[in-house]
Amino acid sequence: MSNIIAIVGRPNVGKSTFFNRLVEKRKAIVDDFSGVTRDRHYGTGEWIGKHFSVVDTGGYVHGSDDIYESAIREQVLIAIDEATVILFMVDVTTGVTDLDDEIASLLRRSKKPVFMVVNKVDNTNLHIEATAFYSLGLGDLYPISSMTGSGTGELLDEVVKHF
Ligand code: GDP
Ligand code: MG
Questions:
Q1: CA 126 to CA 75: how far, in whole Å?
Q2: Which family does it belong to (predicted)?
Q3: Prediction ipTM score
């Protein structure tokens, strides 16, 4: 499978919720030895006839903020290396955080397509607050609600154009 979507972002922004919505089936974890592999979930999905793999990162990271930071950094660098398209997920309810800033600076240097996905936009009132994320310098915003599915179709329409 050559079309790979990687979902990156700090903890609790809703990466796994979106992953679960996107995938048809989960793949078994192949290598259970490295920490990096344990922190990744793989699945496959399809949208308007295009098939892809999805990687959900950070699933099993526990510990202090320092450990989070280096683990997330590692996942972002792997995503930049292996993904066809990167979904950078942030949380409209918290606004821009320092960790969002740090991830954004790694992604701005990537040559891969990056989609700035603002999650938890559960109602139209939150659309205006989502605009705060333009400050991360990654271009267009895709406001979605992984919970209700709102906006996810528009996002996937654009993502699969890269496949
Ligand atoms: P992850 O750590 O990035 O994988 O985040 P999770 O998928 O585990 O979600 C973290 C929390 O955010 C959970 O309590 C989810 O139910 C909640 N959540 C995820 N997506 C949404 C959303 O679109 N709207 C709201 N209101 N909550 C969400
Ligand atoms: Mg998760």
A1: 29
A2: Belongs to the TRAFAC class TrmE-Era-EngA-EngB-Septin-like GTPase superfamily. EngA (Der) GTPase family.
A3: 0.99
30 assigned to a ligand binding site = no
126 C-beta closer than 6 A to ligand 1 = no
Kindly report the CATH number assigned to the domain that includes residue 64.
3.40.50.300
Q: Where are the alpha helices (DSSP H) in 30-134?
A: 35-38, 65-82, 98-108, 127-130
Q: State the closest ligand 1 atom to the C-alpha of 10, by its place in the atom list counted from 1.
A: 3
Q: Which of 34, 35, 84, 31 is nearest to 55 (CA)?
A: 84
User: Considering only CA atoms, which of 14, 11, 7 is closest in space to residue 148?
Assistant: 14
Give the count of domains, the chain: 1
86-130 pLDDT, tens digit each: 999 999 999 999 999 999 999 999 999 999 999 999 999 999 999
Q: What mean pLDDT do residues 51-67 have? A: 74
Question: If you count them, how many residues does the chain have?
Answer: 163
CA dist., res. 111 & res. 114, Å (int): 9
CB 40 near ligand 1, within 6 Å: no
Read off the pTM.
Answer: 0.92
| Ligand 1 pocket mutation, candidates 10, 13, 17, 89, criterion most atoms within 8 A of CB | 17
Does the annotation place 40 within a ligand binding site? no
